[in-house]
Amino acid sequence: MDGVNLIQGFLNKPEYHFVFQPIVGLSSGQVIGYELLSRLFHEGDPVDSEQFFSLAHASGLAVEVDRFILGAALDALPTFSIPHPIFINVDPDSLADRPIQDMLLRISGNRVIEVTERGDWDASIFHDFFDEWCARGGRLALDDFGSGYSGLEKLVVTGPDYVKLDHRLIRGCHESRAQQNIVGAMAQLAAPLGFQLLGEGIETVEELYTCMNLGVTLGQGYYFARPQAWNELVPVAEEVSRCVVQYHQELHSVPDVSEMESWTAHRALMEKLLDAADAQGRVHHIVHALFDALRPYSVSCLQATSSGLEPIVALGHAHLTPISWDAPSLAQKAFMSGRMEVVQGVRSTQKSLGTLNQMLGAPASVAIVPVGKPPWGVLGADYKEPYAWGKQRLNVLITLADLMTLVLPSQPNPRPE
Predict the structure, then answer these.
(1) Looking at residue 121, what is its pLDDT?
(2) Contact status, residue 381 vs residue 367, Cβ threshold 8 Å
(3) pTM for this structure?
(4) Do 319 and 311 meet the contact criterion of CB atoms below 8 Å apart?
(5) Which residues face 341 on adjacent strands?
(6) For residue range 91-129, what is the model confidence (pLDDT) as tens digits?
(7) In CATH terms, is domain 3-249 a member of 3.20.20.450?
């Protein structure tokens, strides 16, 4: 059966089901989201999904296929009660289709649109839709990065929250200096351009270690879990999480505070702040500096809005969901009091830190400080280990929060009331 007939046959008599693959924070080994994938069939036999969607795009039927697949997916998602962000693939042609745009805008919030870097499409024509999507709390991911010929242009124009490196760059990266150079170069772009870097197709512990060593902050692949139906999904193995934690503990048993205290490091950070195009860029540089210096499980910077505290940037095993003013949290307490809040040795059975604590997987040690004069938000970091915050680590957190206040005394992105 040729490609067009296969696709038309699917549209006339669709056979499919949905599966989920976890996305893992490489600072914690914990799940931070799921990619929603479709498994397609023809007369009961499985169809190669990647080939199917490529044929749909090439034959001009991608919009029809996405109208059906996305419609079915969006109807199904509320039945799963998934607490994490869901990453949803959308063909570039479909982003220009108003019915699909309307469909997506109805389910923004804790959702991430993945649009492939492959193919010749003009990202600038989607500006209005992307702006509306992000204004409603949605996020953007540039998928298959490194597989096309105009990736850097799309990276600059779309301004994604995530960049997913194509599996061809990850597969065997521990044995290829060229792949390592490309991945490392992308990691260097993450802070100034404000995205998290995700390695797709991680299948071995050697690939995992290489990705972490090069600065990749998120991972996805068979090493963590295969795509499965939601009711059959196997949690990421504890040994995987232990492997990630052990790697960081051995590599960063003592935080490299001395580097942060050196004039060379200070000057490098100051130059980045001076070169930043806007306030958002300066926030990203400071958060990345904190993450690099202390190697916590997560760092989050949140700004106050009329409805609550909303993340500006989050690294590591960090959350992306706004914290309502109605929900008790340590972040809210720090903001309201205007003072640093530190809680250590927490056990989920003894004490809850509120919404932020739940989103971060109940960390044992959390420190959050207000930023701005008067405060416009908070900067915080956490560790899974109890009593992880010592004097040196707290001094680094306070110093970088003070620096953020100095360069951003008022709210970085004022929002209309």
Answers:
(1) 75
(2) yes
(3) 0.70
(4) yes
(5) 368
(6) 988 988 999 999 998 876 678 999 886 666 777 788 889
(7) yes
